[in-house]
Amino acid sequence: MFDLIVKGGTLPDGTRADIGITGDRIAAVDNLDTAAAGRVIDATGDLVSPPFVDPHFHMDATLSYGTPRINASGTLLEGIALWGELKEIVTIDDMVARGLEYCDWAASMGLLAIRSHVDTCDDRLLGVQAMLELREKVRDYIDLQLVAFPQDGVFRDPTAMDNTIRALDMGVDVVGGIPHFERTMADGARSVTALCEIAAQRGLMVDMHCDETDDPMSRHIETLAYETRRLGLQGRVVGSHLTSMHSMDNYYVSKLLPLIAEAQVAAIPNPLINIMLQGRHDSFPKRRGLTRVREMQAAGIDVGWGQDCVLDPWYSLGTADMLDVAFMGLHVAQMSAPDEMRRCFDMVTETNARIIGVRDYGLRVGATASLVVLDAGNPIEALRLRATRLCVVARGKVIAETPRAVAQLSLPGSPGRPGRLRRRHPAHNG
Ligand SMILES: [Zn+2]
């Protein structure tokens, strides 16, 4: 007797299996035709996936679009300035309320683990207090991991280092940084060293906003990989964005990629934001502003897709849909081969979970009973349709259900044809 069975679904690897859930754990992944359960969800013909994971987000800024004004130039730098204005007027309650609303969106989209950078350049640390409160409020359905992020530069801002350390003392999980925003290249490199040393002393992970610029000489990823090896942080460090690598000299990159791979530093590009913010100083041809995703993967580097922003000073759209993120990444990185498209789905599930260290993740016996049923036959179709999340299960409980989107056609000259339409297609099955 299970509490819940998700029946007849297709897993991302193409196998068909029923999933039996007891309490908050997956108890069986098998043929459960004869088993009884408190509730059975029929997933016949649908894709059953582990939950989506967003490894890069800014929860303290989300859903603030237009407050106090919009980003007119569309650049990263105006976004940072605008966030500075917003920080002056924002309250803890406001940030918690916006974060809670966003987490509702995320729950409805099967996005159940989020790594969020929280700004530590505020002597009152309002954002940190708000996000710690939010982390508690959503802990039964969303794993919210927090990164201490000195948005204005840990050296550029006079109190940022102290505040970042205070944030870690208060329970923020990961050490962040923004070396390309420090005043000089030397300060940027120094900030990487100092912040990695703090992480090593405290046994924490590192996730830096790194080289989010079109400047090919922004090479802080080199220092980040070097310090990772020097301090024995392999497997615990992420370089987020890495957009400057798009513009770097090819010879230099051929030397850089093995260093990143040997340091086991993972990469998190954020395709919606990168394609929107980068290249703004170019005329034509205009650079794509996305890092070298396929090339890094070919070199053995873990690469996930991050969302970064939804309705905030940097980005005016967004729906908490990691399939949107992967869809954009697939296009900009030209990952059109079938195995590359499937990999794009894996990047927003398994790969992201591995990179940020989501515990007990996956569709296997003993794992946390969190999953999502999608109105799609396979991962590629899920991407093509940005498929409806028919059912979302978090820790053994059904937390969201959305009706299947079915159009009813009444075409002139074609009576009775085809009637109900779902836009599913067998193209990528098997
Ligand atoms: Zn970011």
Question: Uncertain segments of ≥5 residues (pLDDT<50)?
Answer: none
Main pleated-sheet profile? 7 strands, parallel
Strand order of the largest sheet: 6-7-8-9-10-11-12
CATH topology of the largest domain: TIM Barrel
- Write down the CATH class of the largest domain: Alpha Beta
- Per CATH, the superfamily of the largest domain is Metal-dependent hydrolases
Structural class: alpha/beta
Strand content: 15-25%
Write the element-wise H/E pattern from the N-terminal end onward.
EEEEEEHHEHEHEHEHEHHEHHHHEHEEEE
What is the number of independent domains? 2
CATH architecture classification of the largest domain: Alpha-Beta Barrel
What's the gyration radius in Å?
22 Å
Bound molecules: zinc ion
Amino-to-carboxy terminus distance:
32 Å
Q: Can you count the helices?
A: 13
What is the overall silhouette? globular
According to DSSP, the number of beta strands is 17
